[in-house]
Specification:
This protein has 21 helices and no strands. It has 423 residues and is an all-alpha fold. Helix 5 packs across helix 12 and helix 16 packs parallel to helix 18. It is globular.
């Protein structure tokens, strides 16, 4: 019957049915075939959604959308350009710095590439950057979104594993900074090689003005991070405070939010949240079936039967997650694979906190790779170039992503040191 479950799921995916519905229908087929009362389907689905932690998701999604709709993106970009715009490759670096700041608000890669990329890709092309380089910089830097807190994928991991979402947020800080800073170095060398132009150096007054304009966005990042780290509020409470803050800034500081625009943002946020929550509910039913059939234990035994070497197991886990990220949306893959692989890594003495960051990092890399790399598709669409052309510029950034992934995998302190300070 487990085989029926997987064949049904893969067949429905191949037919082009969305992941959430493919998962739900496959579970329904299993319930009917096994003669399990359908009331249990509803109960398991509801129990997966009955979590205080999951309230983070609509909160951070709405806060990010409100700040973006309230004029935040342009202010962040202006602040980033005032800092590094005059350096060789400064426009590309501004893109990355903007993504790192925006990451502290949106928590998703797609929101990053769609908002910042929509402004920066055409600007970089206009200033002489090759289209595939402009797209590659925007797409690659968007990956920082789910790594630097807050992060929607990390909220999902925390819900699945019982780990502290606050500690997961903190564990992602160093890998996120490594990604961003390394990408800035790559942009510098590409700009030197191709002799890309630099922006005029900002005066002290211009920098001060840009800092003031961007300070409201930076303050939101400060509220989220230091509020959670300081124990002032939980991640869920932080998301609600972020919504209130974003609303006040959008209406009274930037003055770009209007009541009709606010309703549009709320409807978009509700649609996004509903899609994620439906997926979480179905995935909980799927996870219950896997547990009842002892699939995680069987997979753990199979992998540990090959080797019990910690380093080889981690390589195998990374390969599985990287391949899954190429075909499945990040949250879908997390919901399906984390409960299974967690048993494997714990058996070889890997810190679950470290594994959570490894899983998220692997799967967000998949957002930049075909055939289902949604960020790559969005970036190519904005840059008005074919997917194959975008891939030309991705090579050096992809190599750096893999290096950071390996560092995160084999140097535990990168993910565990900061959270250990919270104890």
């Amino acid at each position: 019957m487990s085989l029926v479950l997987f064949i049904s799921f893969l067949t429905l995916l191949a037919l082009g049915i969305p992941v959430a519905f493919s998962l739900g229908l496959a579970c329904l087929i299993f319930f009917l075939a096994e003669g399990i009362p359908l009331v249990a389907f509803a109960q398991k689905m509801y129990s997966g959604l009955d979590s205080f932690t999951l309230l983070c998701i609509p909160g951070f999604i709405l806060a990010g959308n409100l700040m973006n709709g309230g004029g935040l993106t342009a202010k962040i970009i202006g602040f980033a350009k005032s800092l590094v715009g005059h350096v060789k490759g400064g426009l590309g670096m501004s893109n990355i710095v903007s993504s790192m700041v925006f990451a502290g608000i949106s928590g998703t890669a797609l929101a990053d590439v769609a908002s910042i990329g929509a402004i920066m890709i055409p600007t970089m092309k206009k200033e002489g950057y090759e289209p595939h380089t402009a797209v590659a910089i925007s797409v690659s830097s968007s990956l920082v979104g789910p790594i630097i807190p807050p992060s929607v994928p990390m909220i999902i991991v925390g819900t699945l594993t019982g780990l502290s979402v606050g500690k997961l947020f903190v564990a992602g800080v160093i890998p996120g900074l490594l990604l961003g800073l390394g990408m800035m170095v790559i942009v510098y060398f590409i700009a030197q090689k191709n002799n890309y132009p630099t922006c005029e150096k900002s005066t002290f007054r211009q920098k001060a003005r840009a800092l003031w304009d961007g300070s409201w966005a930076l303050m939101m990042v400060f509220i989220i991070l230091f509020g959670i780290l300081g124990g002032l509020f939980t991640p869920t409470e932080a998301s609600i405070i972020s919504v209130i803050y974003a609303t006040l800034v959008g209406f009274f500081i930037y003055k770009e939010l209007t009541v009709p625009r606010c309703f549009e943002i709320m409807i978009d946020s509700i649609k996004t949240t509903a899609g994620i929550m439906l997926l979480v509910g179905f995935a909980n039913v799927f996870a219950w079936i896997l547990a009842s059939q002892q699939i995680p234990q069987q997979i753990a035994e199979a992998l540990l039967g090959i080797t019990t070497n910690k380093f080889i197991i981690l390589i195998l886990v990374n390969i599985v997650l990287l391949i899954a990220g190429m075909f499945l949306e990040t949250i879908s893959a997390l919901l399906i694979l984390v409960p299974v692989l967690l048993k494997v890594v714990v058996a070889v003495d890997v810190d679950p906190l470290q594994f959570g960051i490894i899983a998220v990092l692997n799967l967000v890399i998949g957002l930049t790779t075909p055939p289902v790399g949604v960020c790559l598709f969005v970036g190519s669409s904005i840059g008005e170039i074919p997917l194959s052309e975008s891939l030309k510029g991705m090579a050096p950034f992809f190599l750096w992503m893999i290096i950071v992934l390996l560092l995160t995998t084999y140097v535990p302190a990168i993910t565990t040191w900061l959270p250990s300070l919270l104890n």
